[in-house]
Design goal:
This protein is of the alpha/beta class. Helices cover 39% and strands 19% of the residues. The protein has one domain: Rossmann fold (3-Layer(aba) Sandwich), CATH 3.40.50. An eight-stranded mixed β-sheet has the order 1-2-4-3-5-6-9-10, sandwiched between helices. Helix 1 packs across helix 2 (102-114) and helix 4 packs across helix 5 (164-177).
Length: 288
């Protein structure tokens, strides 16, 4: 399948993008990566571009895209405006949106605030849509950790000392809830090493479970009922995004379905790619 990549010039800087399956005839997919501050990964998504184009782009400040001139750029509002620019530049008049983690919040904020036309459906994978709900899930996960790991996290958050003990506990947590594969795939290790702390710390915090940035009070749940497009939500049964929380989200959308991927966590598309592809393929076939 043909692929190509290039740069999109926006008012705030150049953004890297790549498209797989560019000659596919079915409605394209635009993938919104997680983070904030992470970068595009196509692992586990290969079946999607058999018959349709699948576009990836790195948000400003992320991956191969430019950095913002000022850290204050990194906000939901600016990333929503950027998404509109990306979609226009790539001429994606009809499109599916596929978000991962933070990318789910970006997709939904775009639908709610920009009120775009032509979005045929939305796939929300390991969805982050509410900081209060996310924090509650992480507190439950932390409470189940071995005592030493739990205490290291609690001590770091209490004192603000996010040193070696906190970092070690953080990685133990990630091995349980972010990616279950051992060792982590090289592409994932490389992606994590490329995370931009300027974006992550400004918007989020020190780790997946220590929220101290601009998103601390972010919550889309009161507005999810306004999203009329068909929605698919996926999560792993050991995901950071708790199964019950994702089920609660599903029930807020007027037209949504949900799938829980077994023996999988936050990056379930990498851990269980065949199941993930089957679930997404079924959704696309129905909506197409």
């Amino acid at each position: 399948m043909k692929r190509s990549e290039g740069k999109i010039r926006t008012v705030n800087g150049s953004l890297w993008y790549r498209v797989h399956g560019k000659d596919g005839k079915k409605t394209p997919i635009l993938v919104l990566h997680g983070g904030p501050g992470f970068l595009s990964m196509d692992d586990g998504l290969e079946p999607l571009w058999k018959d349709r184009p699948v576009f990836f782009y790195d948000q400003l400040g992320c991956g191969k895209s430019d950095r913002a001139a000022n850290r204050n750029f990194y906000s939901v509002e600016n990333y929503v405006a950027e998404l509109a620019e990306v979609r226009a530049a790539l001429k994606l008049d009809d499109v599916y949106l596929m978000g991962f983690s933070w990318g789910c919040a970006l997709a939904c904020a775009y639908l709610l605030d920009a009120r775009p036309s032509g979005v045929k459906g939305v796939m929300l994978c390991a969805p982050y849509l509410s900081s209060p709900a996310w924090d509650a899930d992480q507190r439950r996960n932390i409470a189940r950790l071995p005592k030493g790991i739990r205490e290291a996290i609690e001590e770091g958050e209490k004192t603000g000392n996010f040193g070696e003990a906190y970092e070690s506990a953080m990685m133990a947590y990630y091995d349980r809830h972010v990616c279950l594969l051992k060792p982590w795939p090289e592409s994932l290790q490389k992606a994590f090493s490329g995370l931009n702390p300027d974006v992550y710390n400004t918007m989020w915090g020190k780790s997946e479970f220590t929220i101290a940035g601009a998103l601390k009070d972010f919550d889309l749940t009161p507005r999810l009922g306004e999203i009329r497009e068909p929605v698919l939500l996926t999560c792993g049964d050991r995901d950071e995004a708790g199964v019950k929380t994702v089920k609660d989200f599903q029930q807020l959308f007027p037209d949504a379905r949900m799938a829980v991927i077994p023996k999988a966590s936050h990056l379930h598309q990498i851990e269980r790619p065949k199941i993930f592809a089957a679930v997404v393929g079924d959704f696309l076939q129905d909506v197409d």
